Prior knowledge:
This protein is an alpha/beta fold. Helices cover about 45% and strands about 15% of the residues. The longest helix has 26 residues, at about 110-135. Nicotinamide-adenine-dinucleotide binds near residues 41 and 45.
Amino acid sequence: MTNALAGKRGLIMGVANDRSIAWGIARAMHGAGAELAFSYQGDAFGKRLEPLAASVGSDFMVDVDVTDDASLDAAFAALNARWGSLDFVVHAVAFSDKAELTGRFLNTSRSNFKNSMDISCYSFIEVARRAHPMMVENGGTLITLTYQGSNRVAPNYNVMGVAKAALESATRYLANDLGPEGIRVNAISPGPMKTLAGAAIGGARRTYKHTEQNTPLRANATLEAVGGTAVYLASDAGACTTGEIIHVDGGFHVLGMPQAEHL
Ligand code: NAD
């Protein structure tokens, strides 16, 4: 897929460090010839992002907290001023209070429910609305990141499962809304990965080991595989795919039981 994204420009949201899924996607998209801009959440993440962005030939970084409309407005105004149009946006942003990513789902608080939904789901709609005018002429692709805890219960995933279910539904509604303008909207659903956000979920190490031992491919997702999937979706090869949730989880989602040797 060396030149699959040649001539395309896009925004990557959610690089916290070099283990971030957004970083795996950025690397793969750069390798496929795309020109990249990045958003980061606050100065500390901005400092970490700078050398990473530079390594893929980008100095285009904007500070965005997705709960702050003004920062989203400023970011898209900067993109519009610099590029005028946009071919893709990768939304790899999620948050929930760590204290509620363990223990009983029953104890989910109203404030964390709202905040998790706002950051992890609603922000995708806010991003889509701002990207839309920059994609309306030539079409484009919006990609978000989800997890299978949306439709099956995973230990400690709790309110994030509800937020991901809403995010997947929003993906389908956005796909239908924006389809007539040639804008495709898809979600990638990786299995558990060792990232900052992944580590916030109670029992993350055991979950990671369980999926590695039991997936049909006997391996967890890699940054390279998730990145390659994003390249495909943003490229012309993905031209007829929208409203889709693509699993990059070694096939774990097809299982009804653990493998016999791990029962
Ligand atoms: P990560 O911690 O590297 O990335 C999460 C990003 O969200 C960070 O860059 C953080 O700055 C950003 N963020 C959080 N709140 C924000 C806010 N208010 N405004 C702007 N940015 C904000 O972790 P990751 O695992 O790479 O997560 C990326 C996406 O992948 C998330 O949607 C996550 O749910 C999803 N995902 C992760 C896994 C996994 O196992 N790690 C599996 C499936 C899906």
